[in-house]
């Protein structure tokens, strides 16, 4: 028995007809507006067959909101569209940037940035060209070739969204703590695969063992490293790192189970072992393909609160509950804060006390 086509082209009405019977209109006679929800379950082969019946080939433009009664001039569309060229599916992403002034330079830069992410998605950059309809800012159309096997059009829409998120994150010239946070919270963790861990990013493939003293001390130390660092940092539980020459890169997303008590366990372990409590520490679960990640965001901390101390230490593999450990992040590794550095901080504090210069929030 033949499968019902997930989308067909109605030549008389010049519309795409979805499997549920709803129709999506044509724009400028050869483009079609759909909602992202329409793409779930839409097979690439069916869309290819439908567009082949359009006189000039046809393109699918994805709308943020779809209302058949609203004129396309006033509709809000995603900068992502689909087309079949020479029988191959192409995902087109529109990205605004004035950083490049010719196609060749832009193609080299965008391909270098997107390649680690797209390789994992079984895709690649096929072409980059400037959109002649825009002058300032310049808009670049990045055409992505995708393998259609085993995926629906919603999967390709997510590939396009991930590429766009990564391009926007790098618009400032580098991936920052803030843009990484945005990528994670928006469900785009996968675009970080292939990127380097930095002085403000640490990933862990599985939950800390928060039933054991060593696990509780370990998570407190992980937070303390960034609290004692200059720029704060992010700990992500549910992503795997891999050592490479010169450092470590993120190699995969491996979601972790999260229940109603997970975040509270992290919070309690940190409260029991880290002093003082970091300002504005966020502990949250974020969704990703296949499950959840646990995200701990440590903003930059006031210098007068440092050093952050961990009650307990792991010495030669053994837990020493009576010890105090003080650590901070340097590059991709962690180093202990030396006794002279701790003493200097305490001495400076005592000097301020003698002069009566006590910060208001510590008085």
UniProtKB/TrEMBL annotation:
Organism: Streptomyces nogalater
Protein name: ATP-binding protein
Keyword tRNA-binding: no
One GO MF term: ATP binding
Stored InterPro entries: Schlafen_AlbA_2_dom, Schlafen_AlbA_2_dom_sf
A Pfam family this chain is assigned to: SLFN_AlbA_2
Domain Schlafen AlbA-2: 197-313
Gene3D superfamilies (alphabetical): Schlafen, AAA domain
Keywords tagged on the record: ATP-binding, Nucleotide-binding
Annotated signal sequence range: none
């Amino acid at each position: 028995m033949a499968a019902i086509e997930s989308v067909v082209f109605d030549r008389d009405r010049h519309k795409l007809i979805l499997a549920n019977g709803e129709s999506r209109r044509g724009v400028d006679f050869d483009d079609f507006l759909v909602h992202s929800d329409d793409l779930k379950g839409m097979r690439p082969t069916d869309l290819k067959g439908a567009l082949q019946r359009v006189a000039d080939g046809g393109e699918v433009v994805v709308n943020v909101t779809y209302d058949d009664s609203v004129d396309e001039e006033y509709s809000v569309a995603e900068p992502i569209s689909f087309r079949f060229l020479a029988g191959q599916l192409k995902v087109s992403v529109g990205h605004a940037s004035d950083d490049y002034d010719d196609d060749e330079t832009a193609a080299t830069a965008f391909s270098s940035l997107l390649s680690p992410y797209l390789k994992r998605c079984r895709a690649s950059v096929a072409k980059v060209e400037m959109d002649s309809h825009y002058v300032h800012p310049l808009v670049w159309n990045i055409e992505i070739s995708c393998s259609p096997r085993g995926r629906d059009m919603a999967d390709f829409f997510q590939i396009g969204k991930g590429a766009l998120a990564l391009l926007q994150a790098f618009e400032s010239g580098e991936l920052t703590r803030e843009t990484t946070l945005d990528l994670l919270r928006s469900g785009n963790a996968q675009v970080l695969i292939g990127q380097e861990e930095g002085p403000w990013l640490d990933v862990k493939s599985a939950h800390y063992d928060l039933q054991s003293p060593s696990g509780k001390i370990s998570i407190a130390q992980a937070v303390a490293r960034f609290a004692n660092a200059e720029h704060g940092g992010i700990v992500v539980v549910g992503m795997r790192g891999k050592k490479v020459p010169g450092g470590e890169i993120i190699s995969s997303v491996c979601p972790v189970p999260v229940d109603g008590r997970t975040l509270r366990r992290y919070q309690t372990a940190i409260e029991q072992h880290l002093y003082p409590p970091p300002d504005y520490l966020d502990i949250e679960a974020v969704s990703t393909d296949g499950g959840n990640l646990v995200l701990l965001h440590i903003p930059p901390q006031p210098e007068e609160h440092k050093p952050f101390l961990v009650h307990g230490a792991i010495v030669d593999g053994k837990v020493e509950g009576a010890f105090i450990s003080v650590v901070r992040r340097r590059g991709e590794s962690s180093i202990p804060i030396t006794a002279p550095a701790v003493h200097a901080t305490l001495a400076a504090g005592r000097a301020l006390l003698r002069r009566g210069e006590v910060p208001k929030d510590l008085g």
